[in-house]
Amino acid sequence: MRRFSTEETARSYFERIRWPDGPVCPHCGNTEKNYARTANKKAGIREGMYTCKECRDTFTVTVGTVMERSHIPLNKWLIAFYMMCASKTQISALQLQRQLEIGSYRTALFLCARIRFALKDISPSGKLGGEVEADETYVGGKARGKGRGYTKNKTVIVSLVQRDGDVRSHVAERVNGASIERLLRKHVEEGAHLNTDESPLYKKAGKRFASHERVNHSQEEYAYYDYRTGRTVTTNTVEGFFGNAKRSLDGTHHNVSPQHLHLYAAEIDFKYNTRKVTDGERTAKGIRGMEGKRLMYRAKKPA
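and the corresponding structure tokens:
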């Protein structure tokens, strides 16, 4: 916070992260001879404004990112990025509002949502391979008069974890065998070894992989060693991921609406996938993820 106490220092940092080789016009993609403008309030020229040599349009480092048209100072944006990326669990909007002295809770909440959108991997490259564990969990409160097994008021998260690798989570209201098969087909290599519990959701989808082994939790079986293949069959990795995720959600936010749960899951995935780097490297990676993304308060009405 001392290092980036002003907008100027924060803007320079954002520019170095987004444009390591110099300013790039977000309107036409031109990289040649884009030049900085001298700030002039009367002429409507702000600090950090550039003019494109090709299309002659003006831009700043926030154009074409989740920060576009935001009135929050850039140093507060940068500190918020760091706080959310460095936190081992999650940061509440109320905490950000207090510590960054943001005017309203609504603004702080939208700030958090836009940062989570920046962390979201919209187009993951490659597929998961090797030993892949798949499982689902349900997020939501208890229904009055219903038992623990009642899930109609909950939202399901399906996560795929490659052992010693990345995780990919998918949020949906309901899942069935067909949706699970589409998800596995999209994200898992055919040569992978699939590990699940005894749920029938994965029975048909598992046939397309090199192997599909299951552990029977109802019989208190959680892991076993297959001497024929020399592999350990378990879903402990994905269940451990769910345990940390639920503690993060329940302990920090207490309640998350199904409409925005995918953004919270994206933040949890991002932190898991960058668990082997420093907080500074994780923050820089998160900032790079804001490129080409916009998140509006309300969706635009169709023309």
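(Above: one complete record from the training split.) Residues 7-121+279-288 form one domain.
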